[in-house]
Amino acid sequence: FLRPWQFMPPAATPARNVVVALMVVSFSILALDGWRSWSAYRQNLTEANIILDNLTRLIAAQTEATFELTDTLIVTNVRNMEVAQNDPANYQRIHEGMAVSVRNSPRVLLISVFDANGNWLVNSTDKPLDTRQNYSDRDYFRYHRDHADKSLHIGPPVQRKTTGEWAVTLSRRWDNPDGSFGGVVVAGITLEYFQSFFKTLNIGNEGVLGLFHTDGIVLARLPLASRRIGENVSYGELFTRYLKQSAQGGFRYTSRIDGYERVLSYRRMSRYPVVITAAFGLNDILATWRADTL
After folding, report:
1. pTM tops 0.70
2. Which H or E run includes 48?
3. 150: exposed, middle or buried (Cβ count in 10 Å: 0-12, 13-18, 19+)
4. Is residue 3 helix, strand or coil?
């Protein structure tokens, strides 16, 4: 028979102790590297979200300043038209003031005044008015014709019938002395102005900047895709989900257009019906992290 002490495992040897210690150290190093890698990953995403939030703040501030300046010009000309009381003799003076305003503000493409039928009365260019053109089919004209209030209206982007240039339109109604609809004063902010400003911002190789109406209409975008200007993207989760939860925030998404995964920050402006978005490609955000990790 075996005695009880003969069942006891053999005593640990120095070599075995060394092996166990090395395994513990190895596992500790792997765990530490994993933790450091995960921390670096999270840090990259956190920093990207902070930068994106700041970008939306910057774009919103620039857009608000641009709209405010443009609206000041519109209000001035609404007042001028209502004082003019449909007297063509006053139109030349109004035209001269418009021309000076546009020359001093390169972001404004054109200021125009239309009568109650959508015909041109005055504009800021020095070219003769093309009386063959009628603008009663424009969104801004129909809106003011059908709404008695004189609030600012931001419409979808339009292409000028004369030159094909894209512009974001801001407009207000002007009234006849009896309070009836007199017509519309509209100013176009050139799309190139927004594009030029967007290009000063570093968004990496896969980044996207966007300016949207709150109804989902694309007002401006970088990279520029002309076919997408004026497109309605209200079906996207930005409008169907996130904006319903909060006026500002962020989320990750995979683009249906190019397949890139991006981190996006959004902000709805408080004074105007406009939404700003800024997004970085996940590949750009994690490029340094992947290089260090791999």
Report:
1. yes
2. helix 14-84
3. middle
4. coil
